[in-house]
Amino acid sequence: MQLSYLSEPSVLYNLQYRYSQDMIYTKAGPVLVAVNPFKKVALYGNEYIKAYRNKTMDSPHVYAIADSALREMKSDEVNQSIIISGESGAGKTETAKIAMQYLASLGGGSGIEYEILQTNPILEAFGNAKTLRNDNSSRFGKLIEIHFSTTGRICGAMIQTFLLEKSRVVQCAVGERSYHIFYQLCAGAPTTLREKLNLKKVDEYKYLKQSCCYSIAGVDDAEMFRAVTEAMNIVHISKEDQDNVFAMVSAVLWLGDVSFTIIDNENHVEITVEEAAETVSRLLGCSIEDLNLVLSKRHMKVNNENIVQKLTLTQATDTRDALAKALYASLFEWLVEQINKSLSVGKRRTGRSISILDIYGFESFDKNSFEQFCINYANERLQQHFNRHLFKLEQEEYVEDGIDWAKVEFEDNQDCLNLFEKKPLGLLSLLDEESTFPNATDLTFANKLKQHLDTNSCFRGERGKAFTVRHYAGEVGV
């Protein structure tokens, strides 16, 4: 369909009409617009793959985008990228999986393509969670680089991950869940593993029960756990390594239940030696004494002298949660590393590849943290890339070629990027500077921002320690 008049209302009406007819894909120049149907639609499978491969179907589709990338990679001998962007819950991860399935179908034959597809259950279990907007929200960014041989067959892949939301390990909002793997392990672990890890019910763990949400409608966590272990087998993660992975997952859960006993009038603490502390120390392979040393004391070096400082209850609790986040983040990185070893191209690499970027969508909640700060900055960068290639470079080319055309106005987000990136007085530089001061607080940081950034149209200081950033997709209060 070609629109006679290009305007915002006509575009929105067209998208709405097509959506009502289950036509969820619309082409806008080189861009494919996908509207999440939030239901199963009969647009996928071998018949559709065959139709787009043979060019007997040309309606807008993710398959068509993937097919175009594959053909151009072969004909131009240039690496290709498929960038998927959109707000949280827009369907980016599913779109990435659909593109991967098409490439695996056309470039398969060696068996490695099946391993690549089986990375999804693992990464989703350890990196996705239920949020208020999305039952399977990616809480990390992912770039998967799929490599092809000279004959156009998939010969390997490499995955890079970004910005895992570590804070979700220790806290999440009411109605949300932490990472899927916690619930899957508790629901699906066989008896021997359950006893070995001393697993409890999900509603008995402090880290999980604070959100009062333990299940997802239509999802069987026990069955998903079996799918995860099967996928781990396929990507050659050994049974011993799998057991160690689940031991770390259990240790993180039990860490949240470690409590402290106040030992003096200055509110200093030691860990309470009970089931939680004993289980954590056993799963981590350390002594109770070592665990107590890590959680209740701080080690510093002052003038070449080692100093041990006792921690208060608040400090020890923060240290415990920091350890849980660090353990989980390290586990996630290790899993990605093992997957990459399994998918390694090695000597088969020819230099031709198709990369698929699936990164967090723009986010704005009632309470926004450093994660949203980073996520939305990354999305501003993606938006500028989009603006540059769709508007700026195209229009500059028209001018150079002397083409008669009507200039297209678009909202440039350079001011917002300057707000983040400008040196020495951008958000990131000021945050780095403030972090070096021992007595820095949220309030001192906010006051510094208000002092230096009030002239930027994308910044607004609020009362107390709050401030607002005006992004291309809307305002976000921090």
TrEMBL record:
Pfam families: Myosin_head. Keywords: Actin-binding, ATP-binding, Motor protein, Myosin, Nucleotide-binding. GO terms for biological process: actin filament organization; actin filament-based movement. GO terms for cellular component: cytoplasm; membrane; myosin complex. ATP binds at residues 86-93. The keyword Transmembrane helix does not apply. GO terms for molecular function: actin filament binding; ATP binding; microfilament motor activity. Residues 1-478 form the Myosin motor domain. InterPro entries: Kinesin_motor_dom_sf (IPR036961), Myosin_head_motor_dom-like (IPR001609), P-loop_NTPase (IPR027417). SMART domains: MYSc. Belongs to the TRAFAC class myosin-kinesin ATPase superfamily. Myosin family. This is Myosin motor domain-containing protein.
